[in-house]
Amino acid sequence: MTTNYEIPENITKLLSTYKRNQDSYNELIRNGGYLPPNQELLIDAITALSMRKNILLKGPTGAGKTKFAETLSSLFQQPMFNVNCSVDLDAESLLGFKTLAYEGDKQVIDFVPGPVINAMQHGTFLYIDEINMAKPETLPLINGVLDYRRTITNPFTNEIVTANEGFNVIAAINEGYVGTVPLNEALKNRFVVIEIPYIEGEQLKQLIETNTQLKDRKTIDLFVKLSSDLIQAVYQGKVAEDAASIRALLDACDLSTFIPARRAIQRAIIDKLDEDREREFVLNLTETLF
């Protein structure tokens, strides 16, 4: 027996609008937007957000998770409030804080909303970066924001805040880094997970052409080959993910328009690595190619 699945009308409209506006999306890419490795990655993210589901972008450092979130924000024409997680993240960093203000000559206590409250009240996107850097006891504060309720009781004002139409949540995670903690199941279950792989081959070449000042095709091809070799080295456990960061590679491409490519790679990639053996490995690759 075959089951036919109907795509909800609002998603059909959104996806058809995306296809009709392919030129607009291409313009967004030319202006620094995220170039996905495949069409499905973009469509799946659009679909989830259209259904008001939270998405968790999971992938190696420098693969473009933040840039993808910014691109989705632009496609939905929604501003985006940001939370940068760390071990110091607390309720005030998420929700806001009280401060002294004046009404005429009278001193009053005023509440300044933080990124979560702002995004909910304005009906815009909320981006939570490196969500697994936060202390496990902090994020449960926003569990009600991340599920069907879309509400929170502001502990500073006792006001119940309900998210306005258009509110969406995108989070990003880097796994296995110092200072990160595993997400608890209650939090993870509030997200649809989208794996963000490294960009390679022709797509990386296009990204370099549209997002850096490097225009020499031969040099671009060499940087694409370097990136491919570094990604394989990461998979083989020879170097840390930092070595294959696409962000760092783009920095090296930019620098190489003014200084020799080998020195550009040294500054943008090699000198960031912690271990001597990793630095030596990347240096040998660089000298072989350049």
UniProtKB/TrEMBL annotation:
Pfam families: AAA_5. Residues 54-191 form the ATPase dynein-related AAA domain. Signal peptide: none annotated. InterPro entries: ATPase_dyneun-rel_AAA (IPR011704), CbbQ/NirQ/NorQ/GpvN (IPR050764), P-loop_NTPase (IPR027417). PANTHER family: MAGNESIUM-CHELATASE SUBUNIT CHLD, MOXR FAMILY PROTEIN. This is ATPase dynein-related AAA domain-containing protein. The lineage of its organism: Bacteria, Bacillati, Bacillota, Bacilli, Bacillales. The gene is yojN.
